[in-house]
Structures are given as structure tokens and as C-alpha cells.
Automatic annotation (TrEMBL), chain B:
Record localization: Cell inner membrane; Cell membrane
Protein name, as recorded: Amino acid ABC transporter permease
Keywords (A to Z) from UniProt: Amino-acid transport, Cell membrane, Membrane, Transmembrane, Transmembrane helix, Transport
Main location: membrane
The keyword Cell membrane is assigned to this record: yes
Residue stretches making up the ABC transmembrane type-1 domain: 85-274
Pfam families named in the record: BPD_transp_1
GO biological process, one term: amino acid transport
Membrane topology reported for the UniProt record: Multi-pass membrane protein
């Protein structure tokens, strides 16, 4: 029943010049849907990881500990000014190779770090750097008069941070954080470079057999369009919920 | 800052008197001020020192015949890496030029009188801003033919041109957004004021609005250039012989662990050396604009 519906749809699209016959082949359809799932999984794992990395990096940048802040600043600058693909290669082809060699010396034959994990780590750190910059800007944007007012009310340093400074900083930083997450969703496509079976990779496998590049690319773009749209809708909702009446805008 | 220092420094060495700039005394660039100056430019000085150290190390190694094998290989592959980087730079410059022209046109069209045009531009911008760059590069690489038939003859359509087109698509969408944002940031009171001076619409646009817009667009435009340059690394995935591809070939040909580590670090350093100064200058510009 479902299959006839699908084949009807494929037949209906044929006159437009789009050939979606691969959807009728159970194994190719399965691979493509798995690819969609892997991309979603990458996003769902990387978004929270990148936010955690961003908070940690922002804390280090604003810690006041000069050596720590200096090292973090260097890491931030290098990450921002080099391509994600090269970072991914440095992690997967260099670091992973060294780890595998070391493990072999210790008598461990298999490396537990998969390409999937490396993509999550690299993309999380890469976007974490951008989150950290947004959060730092947010922390610096809290007016000093507000902080003075809070201090004069007798709030302790911790209370000041958790009840005044961070809530305001989060609200200032939220628009750029949402932007960063949209970028992050797009960035997961780079996973295909090291053969993680995301939607881009599975599509390459299919179109190298069938030569139906345009059809698959439209589906990929639709999928990424849907994911980025969901992120921006969620971001707008959050902005609305966190909005303080009479503050900002 | 630099100029001020140079002037002070030059004033201290007054003509006719013995150069005494390096002795510590009254009225001279004192050691603390020199140190403060060095501190302010610490990262550039560190980069220079690293280059200098390398510059001294290389002749020492070749003179004593103790060049580490990995560095010897790097020395051999370095020209290939640089010509690969040149491909990246060329692609980024062309994509940026094409994308900027198209983006300015689109940005202008987004203020069109007709609703259909405005909607079409909005959709274009949305689609190409939210599409992964890698997917767009695949799109232009595989959808366009190998060669274009022109007047009976076939004109080859090389892959790097397709990558330029693939990168120009998101560039044009983002430039359109930057342009639209800059125009909207000009207070509408300026239009009214200029109108009351008797200027025509086109005159207001050209002589009042545009000069201010260009200044506001410069920083985000440079940011975009840096990000497009980084995206050119994706060209290696569709078979363009760029710097990333060259590094991979080198790493596979030499097949030594230490060389692989070295060449990927050099790859990282090359991109950093090209993109960091741009990012640095952009931030300088942004800071200056905040003061207006």
C-alpha cells in the first residue's frame, strides 16, 4: 500500500524530468533514510556538546587567570582562522593515527574512536569557539551600572553572577548563539569527507551508481532547510520566552 | 600607535647629536615604554621570532647535513603546497568578486517596487544562506556539464570554475543581506532631510546613503572573504588540486608518520597565516566603527 503510493509519486514526478526511482529500491531507500538519521543524530549530539564547550571556553576566557586565558585565546584564534575540513583532517588523519599507533604499542588492536566521534568532537569545539565569543560579548555587554546596583543591594559575588550577570549575558548572546547553531547544522555535511554515513555521503554513494545528482541534491537541501528552520523556530521561541518585559528591544 | 612611537623614537635621535636611543636616560624611549610597546605587539613579535628561528635553523641543518628527514621532505613539497594555496586564493578571489556583484544586484532588487521580485530575492537568500557550502559545491560540480557547447565548439568547463560558482552562490546571498542591512541602518530622516534640500532619489542614494553604506559594509564583507577562503578547502573533495589535496598527496606519497603530522600542521599554519591577518584587520575596523 505504502509502496504503491511511493511509486505513484515517483511516476508523477517523472514528466518534470526528476527521476526518483532510487526510492523504489529497498536497499537504496534504506541507505538514504539512514543517512538522514545520521545527520539528525550528528546535530542532536553536536548542539549540546558545542554549547558545553562554548560555556567552558567562555569561562576560561573571562577567568582572569592570564596564562589560561592566553592559551584559550590562542586556541580560539587558530580555530576561527582555519577551515573546519583541515581541522577535521588534523584530528582524524593525524591525531587519530597517533592514537591508533600508541594503542597498538600497548597491545590494543582496535581504536574505539570512530570517524563519527571525531566529527562530533571537531565540530563541537569549532562551534564552541564561536559560542564562547558570543557569550563573552554578552557578559561584557551587561552594563556596569546594573552590576553596581546589584552589588549595592548586598548580593554576593556568586549571587551577582548567577542571578544578574549570566541571565542578562545569555539574553544578549542568544541571537548569535542561534546563528551559530544554524551554521553548525550546515557544517555537519563535512562529515562526508571522512566517510561518516551522513545524508551527503549516502547520496554520493547513490548518485555515483545512478547519476541522479539533481534529484538527491534537492532532497538534501530540503532536509538541511528543514533542520535549520527548526533551529531558528526554536531559537525564536526561546528568545520570546526569555524576554524580560521592559528590557531591551 | 605605531606612528606615534616612531615619531617619538625619531625625535629622540635628533640630528647632530649622537644616537643615544638605547641608553636609558631622561627624555628617551625608556626601557619600560619599549617593553610596553613589545607587549602590545607580542603576537607579531612572536611570529617574527619563529620565522627568524626557522630561517636560521634551515641553513644550519643544510650546512651540517643534519636536516630531519621530515623537514627535508617538507622542503621538497613546499613549492607544490604554495602553488596549491594559490589555487585556493584564486578561487576565493573570483568567488568573492562574482558573489559581490551578484549580491549587490540582489540587494538592490530586494528594495524593488514589485512584491514578486522582493519575494523571489528573499527566497533566493534564504535557500542559499541555509544550504551547506559543501552541498552547493557538489551541486555545481555535478550538475554542470564537462564542457559548454558554444558555436559548435566545446569550451571546457573545469572543476575549479564550478567550485567558484558553488562558492559564489552563498556569497551572493550573504552580500545581499549585508547590503540590505547597511541600507536599512541609515536613518530614514536622512532621506527626508536630503529630499528637503531638493535632491532627487537617485542623487540621495548615490551621494548620501551609499557612501555611508560602503563604510558599514566593509567589516562584514571582509569577514565573509575570510570565511569563503576557508571554504575553498572543500574544493579538494571534488577533485580540484588545491593546497589540501596537495597535502594529502604528499602525505600519502612520503608515507611517514612524522611527515604526516608536519604537513597537516603546515597546512593549518598556511590557512592561519592567510586568514588571521584579515580577521584581525576586520576587528580593528569594527572597533573603529563603534566609536562613530
Amino acid at each position: 500500500m505504502e509502496n504503491t503510493l511511493l511509486s505513484d509519486a515517483v511516476q508523477a514526478l517523472k514528466p518534470t524530468g526528476l527521476n526518483y526511482e532510487f526510492l523504489l529500491d529497498a536497499s537504496e531507500r534504506g541507505a538514504f533514510i539512514r543517512g538522514l538519521g545520521v545527520t539528525l543524530e550528528l546535530c542532536l549530539l553536536t548542539i549540546p556538546c558545542s554549547l558545553l564547550a562554548g560555556i567552558a571556553l567562555a569561562a576560561m576566557l573571562t577567568s582572569g587567570n592570564r596564562p589560561l586565558a592566553g592559551v584559550t585565546r590562542a586556541f580560539v584564534e587558530i580555530t576561527r582562522s582555519t577551515p573546519t575540513l583541515v581541522q577535521l583532517y588534523c584530528a582524524f588523519l593525524v591525531l587519530n593515527m597517533l592514537i591508533t599507533q600508541q594503542l597498538r604499542e600497548w597491545g590494543v588492536s582496535s581504536n574505539p574512536l570512530t570517524p563519527f566521534i571525531w566529527v562530533v568532537v571537531v565540530v563541537s569545539l569549532h562551534k564552541g569557539v564561536f559560542h564562547a565569543e558570543a557569550l563573552r560579548a554578552g557578559i561584557e555587554a551587561v552594563p556596569s551600572t546594573t552590576l553596581e546596583a546589584a552589588r549595592s543591594l548586598g548580593l554576593s559575588r556568586m549571587q551577582l553572577l548567577s542571578r544578574v550577570q549570566l541571565p542578562l549575558a545569555l539574553r544578549f548572546a542568544l541571537p548569535s548563539l542561534v546563528n551559530n547553531v544554524v551554521d553548525l547544522v550546515k557544517m555537519t555535511a563535512v562529515a562526508s569527507a571522512i566517510a561518516v554515513g551522513d545524508v551527503t555521503y549516502e547520496s554520493i554513494m547513490i548518485w555515483s551508481q545512478r547519476d541522479n545528482v539533481l534529484e538527491l541534491l534537492l532532497l538534501i537541501l530540503l532536509w538541511f532547510g528543514l533542520l535549520t528552520w527548526l533551529v531558528s523556530v526554536a531559537g525564536r521561541r526561546l528568545e520570546h520566552r526569555l524576554r524580560m518585559p521592559g528590557y531591551g528591544q | 600607535m605605531v606612528n606615534k612611537f616612531v615619531i617619538r623614537f625619531a625625535n629622540d635621535i635628533t640630528p647632530g647629536s649622537a644616537p643615544r636611543a638605547w641608553s636609558v636616560g631622561p627624555g628617551l624611549p625608556s626601557l619600560p615604554s619599549l617593553l610596553a610597546h613589545a607587549k602590545r605587539h607580542a603576537r607579531w613579535i612572536a611570529a617574527l621570532a619563529a620565522l627568524l628561528a626557522l630561517g636560521l635553523l634551515l641553513p644550519y641543518w643544510s650546512a651540517t647535513g643534519t636536516t630531519p628527514v621530515a623537514f627535508a621532505h617538507l622542503w621538497k613539497w613546499f613549492p607544490a603546497l604554495l602553488s596549491g594555496l594559490w589555487v585556493n586564493v584564486g578561487i576565493s578571489l573570483l568567488a568573492m568578486a562574482l558573489g559581490t556583484v551578484a549580491g549587490l544586484l540582489l540587494g538592490a532588487l530586494s528594495f524593488s517596487r514589485w512584491r514578486a521580485t522582493r519575494t523571489a530575492v528573499r527566497w533566493y537568500v534564504q535557500v542559499f544562506r541555509n544550504a551547506p557550502t559543501l552541498v552547493l559545491i557538489y551541486f555545481t560540480t555535478y550538475v554542470f556539464p564537462f564542457e559548454i557547447r558554444l558555436f559548435g565548439g566545446g569550451v571546457p568547463f573545469p572543476d575549479w570554475v564550478k567550485v567558484v560558482l558553488g562558492l559564489a552562490l552563498p556569497t551572493s546571498a550573504i552580500v545581499a543581506e549585508i547590503f540590505r542591512g547597511a541600507i536599512q541602518s541609515i536613518p530614514s530622516a536622512q532621506w527626508e532631510a536630503a529630499q528637503s534640500l531638493g535632491l532627487r532619489r537617485s542623487q540621495i542614494f548615490r551621494r548620501v546613503v551609499l557612501p555611508q553604506c560602503l563604510r558599514r559594509m566593509l567589516a562584514p564583507w571582509m569577514n565573509l572573504y575570510a570565511s569563503i577562503t576557508m571554504s575553498t578547502s572543500l574544493a579538494s573533495l571534488v577533485g580540484v588540486h588545491d593546497v589540501v589535496d596537495t597535502a594529502q598527496i604528499a602525505s600519502n606519497t612520503v608515507a611517514r608518520t612524522d611527515f604526516t603530522v608536519l604537513i597537516y600542521l603546515v597546512l593549518l599554519a598556511l590557512f592561519f597565516a592567510y586568514c588571521y591577518p584579515i580577521a584581525h584587520a576586520t576587528r580593528g575596523l569594527e572597533r573603529r566603527h563603534e566609536r562613530y
